[in-house]
Amino acid sequence: MNFLVTGAAGFIGSHLIDLLLTKNHKVVGIDNLKVGTIQNLSQHKQNKDFTFYEGDIANKNSVLDAMKDCDAVFHLAAMADIVPSINNPSEYFNANVNGTFNVLEAAKKQKIKRFVYAASSSCYGLPDIFPTSESADIKPMYPYALTKRLGEELVMHWIKLYNIPGVSLRLFNVYGPRARTSGTYGAVFGVFLAQKLANLPFTVVGDGSQTRDFTYVSDVVDAFYTAMLSDVSNEIFNVGSGGTYSINKLISLLGGDFINIPKRPGEPDCTFADITKIKTMLNWVPKIAFQSGVTKLLNEIDTFRDAPVWNKESIELATSDWFKYLGERNY
Ligand code: UDP
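Above: the input record for the complex with uridine-5'-diphosphate. Below: its predicted structure, written as tokens.
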């Protein structure tokens, strides 16, 4: 099969391309290079099985063009991060909802044989039940979560109505080399590794007892590949590590001083995927234990040299709209 990967130059997209090329598939990647970087794909520059399109999924013709010789689609392209989605929801709606609509319409037109969507576990908001299963309530807390969920609804609708076989994968806190650091205040690993390199204290939110289902990127791309090769269709699957780990545990593994910064309103004290469904129906299991994942990442800490270094003051400034809109409410 010839695959299209949208969001090819991003963190997860580029790891997926590494895997697909190792398995000797022909791969086309599309990315607008707004968040992803071409360096994430530099290892495939000379590979004749890989074609890169610099293009935006918000542009129908770019998507059609990139998809023209493909049989199956991995749709990962999206705007990520919470803070900018609160400041600028229209950009998120355009990329994550309209962009997904364009990819689906192109898939319909091209008679794509299989479609796998990267959804976000942020759709569960502040879950009531742990581990959280796919049937839990949907409660997006901010525009990033909402737009990824709207994208998922579109995908599931197109799968059913237009008979495009496919599934959606709800990813829980993916981490690993090339984790996105971009200009905006974002995922914890980029923040902490840059702080470690700069010999600055880790900025621990709250008392650090909150836990996340940190899932290593090689397990995540393996789930994408497994989902693509399966015949199972019209299903949504959680993709998690099988555990949940506190921020205090993370800093003990990373090693270094820390300071505490205010708890962020509207963020869950725990994320923890129930992965029974994907284990049973797709026969997928996570392989990388948290401690080994963190060790692997520490071995590549130098790749975070260019990441922005955040401190208490700059985080306070960057998250002011977060506190403004989500603060002082009883969730
Ligand atoms: N976190 C932290 N310090 C930071 C950034 C994040 O302690 O500077 C914590 C945050 O409270 C959360 C976890 O790290 O419990 C993961 O945060 P991230 O923003 O990566 O993901 P999300 O909150 O969306 O799960």
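Notes for the reader.
The pocket of uridine-5'-diphosphate is lined by residues 173, 187-188, 191, 203-205, 210, 212, 247, 267, 271 (CB under 6 Å).
The chain has two domains: 2-174+215-239, 182-212+243-272+288-330.
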